[in-house]
From TrEMBL:
Gene Ontology MF terms in the entry: ATP binding; ATP hydrolysis activity
Cofactor: Mg(2+)
Coiled coil: none
KW Nucleotide-binding (keyword) present: yes
Biased composition (Basic and acidic residues): 315-330
Species this chain originates from: Buddleja alternifolia
UniProt keywords, alphabetically: ATP-binding, Hydrolase, Magnesium, Nucleotide-binding
Gene3D superfamilies: 6.10.280.40, P-loop containing nucleotide triphosphate hydrolases
Protein name per its UniProtKB record: AAA+ ATPase domain-containing protein
Catalytic activity: ATP + H2O = ADP + phosphate + H(+)
Highest taxon of the lineage: Eukaryota
Chain segments carrying region Disordered: 311-330
Family: Belongs to the AAA ATPase family. BCS1 subfamily.
């Protein structure tokens, strides 16, 4: 440039160069074929990259075709939650682990924060990309995909891609472990993705009323599973275990799932099959589940009539079954999940991509299930939850009334409860104080009354049966 050129002339020249560039770009957009446009765009990025001294690294929320959540994104989010509050102006707040008064902060969308590492400044920017619109109006819109962008001077490339990112991952993981809040995920209400709430269920194995030996066996089985990572790797199987919980309504199937999650410190994914459009969506939802989790499909016998699709010999359901299933399959018409889609997943085809998961099915009618669904290897352990007997009653008496044997009324309860079929839910209900004045005695007497009524009804049923047989 001529040193004699005055400042206004220089600005004028720069301004007209910029204008020419903008007009040139506009011309390209209007008149060039798309191939040439892409080619020119590629070169313009290269040229601007040559002059731009900054490097960007993106960490996306999902890997690839958003099949799987990207762990690094969650870790970076945790790291930034501790750092971003320093200078970012727009933050998101979420409830912390203890659900106390402390809120966890993270960067809001399109917000920027800076960080410093060994004297080097970097910046982090949060953003999101929206999926392209679907050709047809859809009930299941694809979710936005979020990302973080790390920006730094190219002079520090080696240090940032090496020790700084290592520091981010290490610190982020520590923060994650400190803040880990277990979650209950659900895909209900026609959602094509998981939504979650904090999982806070008070059930533990201590409060579950069931045969003590059976309880110990289940706990042992679960703990062995969690310690078997190397074993599963050695035998070449996905690190998962299937449980089938069956028994009449109110015997504690759902309660046991909560107790399992509390014992193992796992998240729970409550999969509502009737809300899943097809096998592809099922596969996506399942691959989005994280390690250390329980995937639950409640009332599998009612889920999309999976049983019948394979057997083709639908048994007639009783009116009680039909009523329950009707309630559960309201959206059946939009779901095309098949038994084979579900079996493929259980067999480890997709579950192999992330370890340590339990898959639990519950049913009231185990005999109605397709044997392909329940065979060992798929559902490794079958657990029957049955009517409440004396051992179960003692647990409930301790939980609800804080009383233990020996007690003068216990023998009476023992004699009656062994004779009748009463669910733990009904025993629990009878033991609940009905007014603030009700003491343990009153509640026990209430239970005895209920048990006597059950016995009377049972005897009457038997009598009816005898009479019926005699008439026949
Ligand atoms: N074995 C049990 N131990 C302790 N409490 C129990 C047990 N079974 C049932 N309950 C009590 O009864 C209530 C209902 O139990 P739960 O929902 O676990 O039954 P379920 O077997 O899942 O029934 P459904 O087949 O209708 O889903 C629970 O909230 C719990 O308070
Ligand atoms: Mg249940």
């Amino acid at each position: 440039m001529n040193p004699m050129t005055s400042m206004p002339e220089t600005w004028g020249a720069l301004g007209s160069a910029l204008l020419t560039f903008i007009l040139f770009q506009d011309m390209i957009r209007r008149y060039c074929p798309p191939e040439l446009q892409r080619y020119l765009e590629k070169w313009s990025i290269k040229i601007s990259g040559f002059f731009n001294p900054y490097i960007q690294i993106s960490i996306h929320e999902y890997l690839g075709n958003h099949l799987k959540p990207h762990k690094a994104y969650a870790i970076a989010e945790a790291y930034l939650s501790a750092n971003s509050s320093k200078d970012a102006k727009r933050l998101k707040a979420e409830m912390g682990k203890d659900n106390g008064n402390k809120l966890m902060l993270s960067l809001d969308e399109y917000e920027k924060t800076t960080d410093e590492f060994e004297g080097v400044k970097v910046s982090w920017i949060s953003g999101k990309t929206s999926p392209p619109p679907r050709p047809m109006l859809s009930y299941f819109p694809d979710p936005d995909k979020k990302y973080y962008k790390l920006k730094f001077h190219r002079r520090y490339k080696e240090m940032i891609t090496g020790s700084y990112l290592e520091h981010v991952m290490k610190t982020g993981k520590e923060i994650q472990a400190r803040n880990r809040q277990r979650k209950l995920y659900t895909n209900g209400h026609n959602m094509s993705c998981w939504s979650h709430i904090v999982f806070e269920h008070p059930a533990t194995f201590k409060t579950i009323a069931m045969d003590p030996e059976q309880k110990e066996e289940i706990i042992e089985d679960l703990l062995t599973f969690t310690k078997s990572r190397d074993f599963y790797a050695r035998i070449g199987k996905a690190w998962k275990r299937g449980y089938l919980l069956y028994g009449p309504p109110g015997t504690g199937k759902s309660t046991m799932i909560a107790a399992m999650a509390n014992l193992l410190d796992y998240d729970v994914y409550d999969l509502e099959l009737t809300s899943v459009r097809d096998n592809t969506e099922l596969r996506r939802l399942l691959t989005e589940t994280t390690s250390k989790s329980i995937i639950v499909i409640e009332d599998i016998d009612c889920s999309l009539d999976l049983t019948g699709q394979r057997k083709n010999n639908k048994k007639e359901k009783t009116s009680e079954e039909t009523e329950k299933c009707k309630k559960d399959t309201k959206e059946e018409s939009v779901s095309k999940v098949t038994l084979s889609g579900l079996l493929n997943f259980i067999d480890g085809l997709w579950s192999a991509c992330a370890g340590e998961r339990l898959i639990i099915f519950t049913t009231n009618y185990v005999n109605k299930l397709d044997p392909a669904l329940t065979r060992r290897g798929r559902m490794d352990k079958h657990i029957e939850l049955s009517y409440c007997k004396y051992e179960g009653f003692k647990v409930l008496a301790k939980n609800y009334l804080e009383i233990e044997a020996p007690h003068p009324l216990f023998p009476k309860v023992e004699a009656l409860i062994e004779e009748v079929e009463i669910t733990p839910a009904d025993v629990a209900e009878s033991l609940m104080p009905k007014s603030t004045k009700d003491g343990p005695e009153k509640c026990l007497l209430n239970l005895i009354q209920t048990l006597e009524k059950c016995k009377e009804l049972k005897d009457r049923d038997q009598q009816d049966r005898v009479e019926y047989l005699e008439i026949k």
